[in-house]
Design a protein that fits this description.
Elements (H helix, E strand, L loop, with lengths): L4 H4 L11 E7 L3 E8 L6 E9 L5 E2 L2 E2 L2 H15 L5 E6 L4 E9 L3 H11 L11 E12 L5 E11 H13 L3 E7 H9 L12 E7 L4 E7 L2 E8 L3 H12 L3 H11 L5 H6 L3 H26 L6 E7 L8 H9 L3 E3 L7 E2 L6 H7 L4 H11 L1
Parallel strand pairs: 1-6, 3-16, 6-10, 11-14, 14-15
Antiparallel strand pairs: 1-2, 2-3, 4-5, 7-9, 8-9, 11-12, 12-13
Helix pairs in contact: 2-4, 5-12, 6-7, 6-9, 9-10
Bound molecules: adenosine-5'-triphosphate (ATP) and magnesium ion.
Adenosine-5'-triphosphate binds next to helix 6 and helix 7.
Length: 372
């Protein structure tokens, strides 16, 4: 539904035909993959695994070191024994943009073909170097009486997509589709709840990674707004390391132990340097997320957002959910793609599953996108 069929043209090979698929999430801190099988009843998580990446192999959501990433993926495949080499891969970085655009209505195929002539003004890259796709939102008639189509336009740098494909192929896998990570997040998390009918209030799904934060506002499973922020939990760790003069690993564990205070007043009362560093960078992050939601809500076509669902490693920061709730005046819940999945023989006990659940939403959602 939300898959980037346009992007997949950059990939040789056929789409997954069976009802089994593997989603591959290449993040800053590691590569993760989920194998999903679909039969009767709920989708089954058949395999899940992750392997960490050396610092610098992926930066700001882009693969910098193809060899390192390929090697990590190879390790992941030999350690987890996925039953297929055909994968759908997510991308999310500053080389892909999603914009709401109103264009003259045309039948679907013609509309797709016309995109290249219509969208240059809306995207920050030359159209001939971009892979374009769209997700229809609604039809309407403009003031001049013209039939229009409002869409979420997706434009991805062809070089960036090709680089991602190259890393996956170098690992010996066959990428069958490249998808936008926020769309995968939507499929991974929106199913955890009754989806609501159109006309129902919207929900904001927020996946906080190490250096990328994906935001998708959806209504009844239909994406309304996407924002990719170039910030995440890694910024807080870096601030702690820099200001406190600590190595990254130590900064990471101190950050996790300390977290943010649930109430800003409590934070203000503590003048220790550690608190100040975490509070300053944490608050900047919260403000950025709030700003993105405000931007969406200021659009005339926006729908009321009723709650926030948080995922990703960075979303686990102590106090973050409470501070986001205060800043946005919305309830914030921690989401898990596992909650509605049947768990197959993944080889992970309940404790281990609970640990990986927050970082599994994207890979699960990528797999669901092609398996269904
Ligand atoms: N318990 C925790 N408390 C606070 N932060 C945590 C916790 N666990 C993980 N993190 C943070 O989560 C971040 C990594 O999240 P995640 O694994 O989702 O990112 P990624 O997918 O590898 O990166 P990205 O999506 O940005 O490319 C790190 O910044 C780490 O500090
Ligand atoms: Mg991530």
């Amino acid at each position: 539904m939300c898959s980037m069929s346009g992007m997949s043209k950059a990939v040789k090979g056929k789409h997954v035909t069976g009802r089994r698929a593997v989603g591959l999430d290449i993040g800053t801190s590691g590569v993760r993959a989920a194998e999903i099988s679909l039969g009767k009843g709920p989708a089954t998580l058949a395999r899940f695994g992750q392997v960490s990446l050396p610092v610098g192999a992926v930066r700001d959501g882009e693969i910098v070191d193809v060899a390192e990433v390929a090697s990590a993926i190879r390790h992941l495949w030999s350690a987890t024994k996925f039953r297929t080499k055909r994968v759908v891969v997510g991308v999310s970085n500053q080389k892909v943009v999603v914009r709401q655009v109103d264009l003259p209505w045309l039948p679907a195929e013609e509309f797709r073909k016309s995109l290249i002539y219509q969208v240059q003004d809306y995207i920050p890259m030359p159209v001939d170097q971009a892979i374009l796709d769209f997700h229809p939102l609604e039809e309407f008639v403009n003031e001049a009486g013209g039939r229009m189509l409002r869409v979420l336009l997706v434009a991805a740098s062809a070089d960036m997509v090709n680089n991602t494909v190259a890393a996956v192929q170098k690992a010996g896998l066959a990428p069958v589709m490249i998808d936008l990570t926020p769309f995968a997040l939507l499929r991974g998390l929106a199913q955890m709840d009754e989806l609501g009918l159109s006309g129902a209030p919207a929900e904001a799904l927020i996946d906080v990674g190490a250096s990328i934060t994906n935001i998708v506002v959806h209504q009844g499973g239909v994406p309304r707004f996407v924002r990719i922020l170039l910030m995440g939990g890694g910024d807080i760790t870096e601030a702690v390391a820099e200001r406190m003069g600590l190595p990254m690993e130590q900064a990471e564990s101190i950050k996790q132990q300390t977290g943010m205070r649930e109430k800003p007043a409590e934070a203000a009362a503590d003048s220790s340097q550690l608190t100040r560093v975490i509070e300053t960078s944490g608050a900047a992050f919260v403000e950025e997320v709030r700003g993105s939601l405000d931007y969406y809500l200021a659009q005339p076509s926006s729908v009321d957002v009723k709650r926030i669902v948080l995922s990703g490693g960075g979303g686990q920061l102590r106090g973050l959910a409470a501070r986001l709730a205060l800043a946005t005046r919305l309830p914030v819940e921690l989401g898990s793609a596992m909650s509605t999945l049947r768990i197959g023989k993944v080889g992970l006990d309940a404790t281990r599953l609970a640990l990986v659940a927050p970082v599994a939403s994207v890979s699960v959602g990528l797999a669901i996108g092609v398996a269904s």
